[in-house]
Design goal:
single chain, 224 residues, alpha+beta, four-stranded antiparallel beta sheet
């Protein structure tokens, strides 16, 4: 997590004031692009409400989802020290963002070493997550990959409430197949299997997690 609240908490009072006076608020509609690969890097975005997917282009007709992000995290930070973004970002739902100009953000990091270290640790964790997913694409059964991605959605988006274990946002089946590197049909069959096994419950296009322990156990299993 790397929220704007946490960012301000680790800022010294004078830099917190600078951040506040230079920030702006953006509201992006579902399916709207926040920035595109090749666009100039202008600043950093904090997700206040909503959900976003980050994509890499393989060719003109194909994009691969490399990251999903929900409320209270950062976006566009991989563009630091680059003139142009090498990824694109799209709102999965109506999303509210706090924008900080890149120059201001960099000055705040240089003046607040603890903040810089926190960001470094956050990026290391992101890199580890990406490497782990790359390994799983090559070595792990699709059922386990799909189970892992369901748990990732819990981590990123949470539940609608403490008592309602329906994901507050559910990736489309197409986006889920994109992220786990399998076919749309395999995703549909696997979700149906998970429901029969009472790991999840399908509510239209939404997914409720009915047995988190069993789903987690499946992710850790070496069985294919």
């Amino acid at each position: 997590m790397f929220s704007s609240k946490l960012f301000k908490k680790h800022c010294s009072p004078e830099w917190r004031e600078i951040f506040e006076s230079n920030k702006s608020t953006l509201v992006v509609k579902a399916k709207e692009r926040i920035f595109n690969a090749g666009s100039p890097v202008k600043g950093i975005y904090f997700i206040e409400e909503g959900a976003v997917k980050v994509l890499v282009s393989f060719n003109k007709d194909e994009e691969k989802i490399v990251r999903i992000a929900g409320k209270d995290t950062i976006l566009g930070h991989r563009g630091i020290h680059y003139k142009r973004y090498h990824v694109s970002s799209v709102a999965l739902m109506d999303t509210t963002l706090t924008f900080s100009p890149l120059g201001i953000f960099e000055k705040i990091l240089m003046a607040n070493p603890k903040m810089a270290m926190y960001l470094l640790n956050f990026m290391v964790e992101e890199l580890y997550d990406a490497e782990e997913r790359l390994v799983s694409l090559a070595n792990i059964d699709p059922k386990q990959r799909i189970a892992k991605m369901l748990l990732k959605q819990v981590e990123c988006f949470g539940f609608k409430s403490k008592t309602d274990k329906t994901l507050s946002f559910t990736l489309s089946r197409a986006d889920l197949s994109n992220m786990v590197g399998t076919s749309y049909e395999t995703v549909i069959r696997t979700l149906s299997l998970f429901e029969k096994s009472q790991y999840i419950k399908l509510i239209g296009k939404e997914i409720a997690i009915t047995n988190m322990a069993k789903l987690t156990s499946l992710c850790m299993s070496n069985e294919s």
